[in-house]
Structure formats: C-alpha cells, structure tokens
Specification:
single chain; 14 helices; 3 domains; 0% strand; 295 residues; mainly alpha
Length: 295
C-alpha cells in the first residue's frame, strides 16, 4: 500500500493533468464497450468530445499503460474484495432456490406437510431462513400438523419414561431433532460443487484468481489440493486478503473518529462486514434469522 501511494503521488505530480485525464477517458470507453453500451450513447459520446478537446489543447498522447506498481494494484485481482466468499455465495443461492420451491409445496400440499413432519422439519438455522420467505399463513399451514405430531410424541414419551433421564433422552430422540434436514443436504451439495469448481479454476489460472474464502471453507478447499506449494501460495493469498481488509477496517475507524465518514471508500464502508465474513462465513450460511444487507 505505501508503494502504491508513493507511485500515485509521483504519477500525479510528474505527469501532466491532460495525460491523466486522457488515460481516464480511454479507460472509460473501454468499460463502456465491455458493458455493451452503444458507442452512440450519451456517455461515450461525451467522453470522446473530452478526448478531442484535450488533443486540440495540445495534450500529449499518454503512455499505453499506467506505471507498473499502479497497474498491478488496479488489475482485476484487487484482492477480490468486491464479493463475499464464493462458496458461501453458491450455498446462499442454492438454499434460497430450494426453500422457495419447498415452501410452495408446503403451502399447497397436505402430503408435503406430513412428509416434512415425518422427516423432522428443518434444522434451526434453515427453519428461520424458511420463515423469511414464507408468509405467516404459509407457516401456519405447513407447521400446524407438525406441532400436533410433536405434542403427541411428547405425551407418549412422558407416559413411558421411568425416570427424568429416560424422559430427557426420549425427547432428544424425537423427530424434531432429526439430522435429516433437507436444506442441510442441499447446502452440503452446493458446498461440494462450489469447492470443485473453484479448485478447477485455481488449478488452471493460479492462486491470484482465488477470491477471499471464509474460514468455514478455506480448510475444506485446501484439503482438496495435492500440491503443497500451491496450497501454501493460496494460504499466502488469503493472508494478503486478511491484511487488506484489516487496513480497510483501520482506515474506516480512523475516518469515523476524525468525523471524516464522507471520505470512506466503498471498501472501507464494507470492511466491518467483510472482516467478520472472513472469520465466520456468510450470515445466511453460518447463522440463522439475520438479515444480510451489505454482502
């Protein structure tokens, strides 16, 4: 980071302002083209007008590239802080799609109610994720029979128990505590698919293409790598990402303390969420009943 800042100062003070602006125009046109925006649209037309004015004013044609250290910093690998853990991301998408379909079946089918109850329902985390997308009416329709079955099971266990220990163990064996949560099965499948996909990408392109991974998924990812040297490079990559997020968190705290919150960059605004996400995983993967705005 200090090397980049020094190079940025040198570039801005040693090169003409026209040079920097011309290069910026060039980059803007490139971004517009990649986005599929027509070259006749207002933005690219205005950018070309600025380019022409700079040429007429005697602005020098800039070098085709930024200084090496700046270019390295500005490349697409920018420590990939624009996204959350991709493994978590795949899980969130797959779980959401599954729950949307499943809650619809629960809302219209009495057979689905019975099967859901017999299976023990969802685990606690996915129960609350289901609640987030279902209506109160849908929850009542889906779970009334489930709770009636649980009530019957409780009375049965209470009547058969010979001691408090028997009663406690009997309740622990109820279907509601079954480890057969269907959403958990979808999550496990999504994690396995995402880990395999990213392993293939990294094997082809190298560690620099790996975005940040949370500590829920980093060990599982590394365990699938046979090459120790590659695993070490990937771990170093994750260390760089942690350092980058730490720096963003420190700058965010300093600007907040100095009442300069208006100067926070986008990365600094998200740093608190990204720091916790690295340590604990995405909130919809690692915790229940919590909103996830910001990631």
């Amino acid at each position: 980071m200090p090397e980049f800042e020094q190079e940025l100062v040198r570039f801005l003070t040693a090169e003409k302002a026209e040079n920097m602006l011309t290069l910026t125009c060039r980059r803007l046109l490139d971004l517009v083209a990649r986005a599929g925006i027509s070259s006749d649209a207002a933005v690219p037309t205005r950018v070309r007008e600025i380019q022409e004015k700079l040429r007429n004013d005697g602005g020098q044609e800039p070098a085709s590239e930024l200084p090496a250290s700046m270019a390295a910093f500005l490349r697409s690998d920018q420590v990939r802080l624009d996204r959350s853990c991709p493994i978590c991301g795949e899980v969130v998408t797959r779980i959401f799609d599954f729950l949307c379909q499943y809650q619809y079946q629960l809302s219209i089918s009495s057979e689905a109610h019975s099967a859901h109850a017999a299976n023990g329902g969802f685990c606690a985390m996915h129960t609350w994720q289901y609640e987030k997308i279902a209506s109160p009416h849908g929850v009542c329709t889906a779970y009334a029979e489930f709770l009636e079955i649980v009530a019957h099971q409780l009375r049965s266990v209470a009547g058969k128990a010979k001691s408090v220990v028997d009663l406690s163990l009997g309740i622990a064996r109820l279907a509601i505590f079954s480890p057969k949560c269907k959403a958990c099965q979808v999550q496990a499948s999504a994690e396995e698919d995402a880990l395999s996909t990213w392993l293939s990408k990294v094997s082809e392109t190298g560690p620099q293409e790996l975005p940040l991974l949370c500590f829920l998924h980093l060990p599982a990812f590394l365990a699938r790598i046979a090459d120790l040297e590659l695993a070490r490079k990937l771990t170093e990559r994750q260390a760089e990402i942690c350092e980058r997020v730490s720096e963003n968190m420190q700058r965010s705290a300093l600007k907040h303390d100095a009442r300069r919150r208006a100067l926070l960059s986008d990365e600094e605004k998200r740093a608190h969420l990204q720091g916790l996400m690295i340590l604990a995983g995405h909130r919809r993967v690692a915790a229940a009943g919590i909103e996830t705005e910001g990631l």
